[in-house]
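Suppose you are handed only these lines of text.
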Amino acid sequence: MALDQQRDEMISVLKDRGITDHAVLQAMHDVPREDFVLPSFRDDAYADSALPLTHKQTISQPLIVALMTQIMELQPSDRVLEIGTGSGYAAAVLGQLAKEVITVERIGDLAITAAETIRKLGKRNVHMRFGDGLKGWPDDGPYDAIAVAAGGDRVPNALFDQLAIGGRLVIPLGPRQDSQKLIRIRKIGEDRYVEDDFGGVRFVPLLPETD
Ligand code: SAH
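From them, the structure of the protein bound to S-adenosyl-L-homocysteine can be written out as follows.
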């Protein structure tokens, strides 16, 4: 099947599985996932599954990218922080909906490849940063929304500080990889938060900077 047919197929799977926000479906349609996967996986780019990247990392499953994006409730004026760029795919999707995306990756090779893919696609509102996302990226904050694309047992403190009031933070939380839940935390005042649970997920671990 041709890639654009497979892309349409993916969109109908996303609809069937609870993605109802039209802007999110449009963004998932418009970002070419085949450009973000390793060349040997191009033909699988629109299967609804995570795929391997280098350095034992993965590009997230389309449904999870769409769900995270949907529950972030993005507005066109929003500034977004993503921790865990990986391939850059989710950052590009977020960039379709928000004003600006800052995305942080701790593995230099992945950061370089993702920056190159994003540059080639002409996504000028997506900005790559290399470093430890456990610290967030204070220089560009506060953010209207934060997505953490790797799992941990708690939210790094710095991220609470860098979230604007009214902002939404989405993160897979759980003591082990097989017991993570996708959690959204909405900041409703200084030190006041509301939490919602969006069910079981499986992400690679959030780790400190290498070196
Ligand atoms: N959003 C990505 C998938 C992310 S996989 C995509 O669309 O392809 C999780 C990524 O988080 C990996 O690339 C991993 O290296 C990165 N990561 C893990 N801990 C991190 C940290 N402390 N700071 C920044 N990136 C981190």
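What can we learn from it? The CA atoms of residues 78 and 158 lie 19 Å apart. DSSP finds six helices and nine strands in the chain.
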